[in-house]
Amino acid sequence: MHLTKCLFYLQLPKRSLLLAACAACIGGTFQYGYNISIINAPTMYVHNFINQTWRDRYQTNISEDVLTLLWSTIVSIFTLGGLIGATIGGTLSVKLGRKGTLLANNISALTAALLMGLSYPTGYFELLIIGRLLTGVNAGIGICVQPLYLGEIAPTAFRGAMGMGTSIFITGGILTGQVIGLKEILGREEYWPILLSTTCIPAFLQLLILPWFPESPRYLLIDKGDNEACKKGKVIAQSLHRELPFQNNLAGVQTKKPWELLMDRSVRWQLLTIILLNIAQQLNGINAIYFYAGYVFKRSGIPDDKIPYVTVGTGACECITALTCGVLIECLGRKVLISGGYALMSIFCILFTLTLTFQDASPVVPYLSMACVFAFILSFGLGPGGVTNILTAELFTQDSRPAAYMIAGSVNWLSFFFIGLVFPFIVIGLQQYCFLVFLAICSLVAIYIFLVVPETKNKTFLEIQTEFQSSNSRKVYNADGAGTILNETLFHQE
Question: Which CATH class for the 254-494 domain?
Answer without folding.
Answer: mainly alpha
